[in-house]
Please model this.
Amino acid sequence: MVERRPVLNFVQHFVLILGAAIFAFPIYLAFVASTHTGIEVNRGLPLLPGDQFFQNYATVLGEGLSTAGAPPIGLMLMNSTIMAMAIALGKIAISLLSSFAIVYFKFPFRVLAFWTIFITLMLPVEVRILPTYEVVAQLGMLNSYAGLSIPLIASATATFLFRQFFMTVPEELTEAARIDGAGPMKFFRDILVPLSRTNLAALFVILFIYGWNQYLWPLLVTTDESYYTVVMGIKRMANAGDSLPEWHLIMATAILALLPPVIVILGMQRLFVRGLVEVEK
Amino acid sequence: MRTKRVTFRHRWLPYLLVAPQIVITAVFFLWPASQAIYQSVLREDAFGLKTEFVGLANFERLFSDSAYLESFWTTIVFSALVAGLSMGIALVLAVMADRVIKSALVYRTVLIWPYAVAPAIAGVLWWFLFNPTIGIGAYAMGQLGYDWNHFQDGNDAMALIVIAAAWRQVSYNFLFFLAGLQAIPRSLIEAAAIDNAGPFKRFWSIQLPLLSPTVFFLLVVNVVYAFFETFGIVHATTGGGPGNETVILVYKVWRDAFEGLNLGSSAAQSVILMVIVIALTAIQFRYIERRVEY
Amino acid sequence: MADITLNHIRKVYPGGVEAIPGLSVDIEDGELCVLVGPSGCGKSTLLRMVAGLEEVTGGEISIGGRKVNDLEPADRDIAMVFQNYALYPHMSVYENMAYGLKNQGTPKAEIRERVNEAAGILGLADFLERKPRQLSGGQRQRVAMGRAIVRKPQVFLFDEPLSNLDAKLRMKTRVEIRDLQQRLKTTAIYVTHDQSEAMTLADKLVVMNAGRIEQVGPPIALYERPATKFVAEFIGSPPMNFIPGHAGADGVTIGEGVKLDDRPHQHGEVSVGIRPEHLVRDTAGPLSVDVRVVERLGASGNVYGWVEQTGSELVASLTDATLPQPGETMRMSVDPAMLHLFDRETGDRLD
Model:
């Protein structure tokens, strides 16, 4: 603070607290709705939590919304976890390897490889929906965990991040390792990967959230309910035909769907912020 | 493009290392993208029996199709509103948080988590909040004399998806604005204070100009977000309605391909979207290069 | 233990820049050979070629009679101490020292024994579990040394290992390195740009300039009989003075017949080199010096000024109790046996 201005300070805290409250409000209401019976919610939403918490969450986790033909949320949560982990770890693994090759080796077609990876930056799933779907269908990967995750794990962003980080690793470490008798893969495993730990963790947070929050892709490649992810599955419930939507259960599902990534982001806030700013550099 | 000064020597290892990424890129990116380009110049007859080469006819048809042009316009309005709203709110909050150094981290914690919420979930939450019969937001609007109904009113529906999309993006923008503000040397602000510039003057004459690279960068990022990552919001809530009032381009590509089964048109739309992404990416990279020189 | 032979070594960079045009030197077993020269003279490139970190364009490097040109660094039986130490930041001191042995497949018990032994020698026994970032600069330098000695290599390579230390620590560590190398009797190549480090450490001193060797020999020989003007200027501090002169049948003269030496020569136009420490105050001396700046260093002092008769710059190191004042003019002389004569064109030594 450069000078003392009590009024301004008060205004600041007021604005920030108001902002935070407005931000949290939709989640709060969703939580409130998830603790009442459907009848109570449809009668006009109360503003304080009710007593149906365990009842509602047990219902969605165990049974799902039978009327909407959706599977239990427990299964969807597991599918989401598998997809998010596979995407995050897969992206990290292939990007680590390819950026290692691009930075630490000179080989013919190196620049071509780099540009091939680079171009993926320009082709988000959303702009090549149908042909990508066709490829996945031809490979028989519809309704499978592989189909949910593999097409999304090529990532120019992660490759760039690692490339940038590797370029800052002192040359002498590589030389010392060579004198110490470490070949390329030993150097990669013993020196480079341990040195990248912070970057790995930061990237994991971002990619886990990215994977978890996928919507369009699971919508395309899954028709079998047992492969639904929770983020796309919620739509099935919200549009459950002509019957009144069961808002209390939908909101319980929404809370469950947003909880894992929110926990990850809050738990690893420092890493996440650092990673985000690094990636966009 | 540089490598390390000291590189390893190996005949086949580097190829093995890049292979997984190259294979995935080729199968799921390059091949589909080239298919999209290929299909965009073909037309299939109604029974899918034969296809013929039609040149740029699919594109010509698109740009004379009022539905497509409307969708284009909808997307532009939507993007402008999302970017403007989320950046404006984020900037105000970041400036406030930057001044209260001690509690900036606390505020950052309570403000960043909406970024983790999936766009589709964000849509459903706001959809519920403004539900015309039971939503508390709609009720509040009613008390203010406005009859909110996003099922029937296109403007209400648009406002809803804008709010849901911006809500999530404020967190992201806030982080970058706060980081940008905190990177401005304290001594600069102090020098200005000694030069008798009050807090508002300091903001306009020092912080905002120094923040302009961040503003520009976020503008591109937000437009990309609004264009390409908001499919879930529309699909999970308005479904493009009422009428076609909230059909954004990405939603239209999907609907024409999977519900309308109009392959040539959908492919042509994909190609147009690719051109837009490439243009935005190029702008972003030019910007990054510029920043490197600073 | 091994000798090192460099035979017509060439280094041409991919861009076509010739860093080393062809250079030969022999280093005997157990010798500490110092490569010294200004930055960019090729001394580090040469060291890195011996280490195997830089490809050799032409010629042959052999260690202990074995040609090593195409061997990986790890197979050359060498150890290297880097300027910035290059310690692995995520490994403890122990792991840093043990890594090379581990990669060789040395049994665990032996690794432990050797690391402990090295840690004992270097006074690192209490720090084995620490990470490099928890150590001071001097301690890191020791770990880098430790990593080199646990390997018991045939050759030590030092790449300016002291330049990241402060002046006091540098002097102390210099003595320790010398002591350690003599105790272990390991052949060593040591690269530095600091002439006093080079003088004090070397058994064999190699002065390099623009990729070529200017002179090789024991430090004292280079000091007493520098083969070129470049070596004369580089070795010794403050550097040697040069005054244009004439060396003919009537002896060595500068300016208008100012005679420094009576003995006849047949060289003609020369550059006369005089070390600052060989100049003495002498009221009957031939040189007349305008004093500009006087530096008192305690036991001695440096006097900077101009030779009146030729206008040449001059510095003299005097050990007199009283030094002249700036603005004074003093007479000086030099023992004729201490004069160095160089060709004015080529810079080569003439006598």
Remarks:
- Chain A has a mean pLDDT of 84.
- The longest helix of chain A spans residues 73-104.
- Chain A touches chain C through 17 residues (CB under 8 Å).
